[in-house]
Amino acid sequence: MSHSSHTKVVVDTDIGTDPDDGLALAYLAMHPACDLLGVTIVTGDVQQRAAVAEILLRACDRSDVPIHCGRREPLLKGAGQPLVQQYDCIKHMTHIQGRPENAAVDFLQRTIRNHPGEVVLLTIGPLSNAGLLFALDPELPSLCKEVVSMCGKYFGPEKHQKEWNILVDETAAGIVLKTQRPRHRFVGLDVTRPCTLQAHDAEKRLFQELGELGGLMKSLGDWWLKKKDRFTFHDPLAAAIIFQPDLCEWVTGRMVVDPSNGATSFEANAGTDLVACDVNPEAFFTNYFEVVKSTSPKETFDRMRAQVSSQVSS
């Protein structure tokens, strides 16, 4: 149910590979100020990715949130991302199969146009759906309250740097950046990296203390921890700054993608893009776990929503 105190959000995600997409979706699903209007799926086996999103939303008691499959392949140039490793963890669970495909762009367009100036479009995967959306409807970014993207890398020692969400579909990224966007925040890889939990901290803070949701997170993320021995909260940070932008420091300029190799760079004072240049990891983790930490997601969600509503009415 929509409420004037809540921020309307649609999230475009490649959930099902890295664990941070699921961590971000759980945060949005349980945030007391988030009116999560829908989830769109991008890249690779979108049916499997949608199933992972469905199971995770169910664990948050948010089966009311619609899920729409988007584009499987890069628009033209890009690495693609066919593997959905997390699907093996949930394929035995009951879930919808055979969702309509290529429905994401239409859903995003209708939703944003039905709520002009109110919807935050959050992209935490490759930009295939967003690129198609902006190409078909170049006015749409101006109808968003804000566009927020976890992509790129800007402030490391190298002049030009590469990041996976850009490389998976370089053409789509180019289309997004060539479309006029009045307000677009970028959270890059170099800023998200400090928001990392090592394996032993993830075991305690995520898996043991989050009840059913923690058990699902453990199942979905175990393969990643064995490979990396850590969780980095790239996408959850992008989700969190929608509600608390001061978790990061920001500089204004223009995000640029090199068409020859997909590398990103930042040109200061050259545009209206807002790019995160620093983060407070401690404040981020306090914010994140304040939202999701519960053995009963539904009760916590209802309680926190009531608190938000009472604060607004007073």
Describe the structure.
This protein is of the alpha/beta class. The chain has one domain (7-313): Alpha-Beta Complex (Inosine-uridine Nucleoside N-ribohydrolase, Chain A), CATH 3.90.245. It is built from 14 helices and eleven strands. It has helices at residues 20-30, 46-59, 87-90, 104-114, 128-136, 140-143, 164-167, 170-178, 189-192, 199-208, 211-228, 234-240, 281-292, 297-313; strands spanning 7-13, 34-41, 67-69, 119-123, 146-150, 184-187, 196-198, 230-232, 248-257, 264-268, 273-279. The strands form two sheets. Strands 3-2-1-4-5-6-11-9-10 form a nine-stranded mixed sheet, sandwiched between helices. Strands 7-8 form a two-stranded antiparallel ribbon. β1, α1 (20-30) and β2 (34-41) form a beta-alpha-beta unit. α1 (20-30) packs across α2 (46-59) and α1 (20-30) runs parallel beside α12. The model has no long low-confidence stretch (mean pLDDT 90).
In helices, the fraction of residues equals 40-55%
CATH architecture: Alpha-Beta Complex
- Work out the count of structural domains: 1
Q: SSE string, helix = H, strand = E? A: EHEHEHHEHHEHHEHEHHEHEEEHH
Protein structure class: alpha/beta
The CATH homologous superfamily corresponds to: Ribonucleoside hydrolase-like
Protein name: Inosine/uridine-preferring nucleoside hydrolase domain-containing protein
GO biological process, one term: purine nucleoside catabolic process
Keywords: Glycosidase, Hydrolase
Pfam families: IU_nuc_hydro
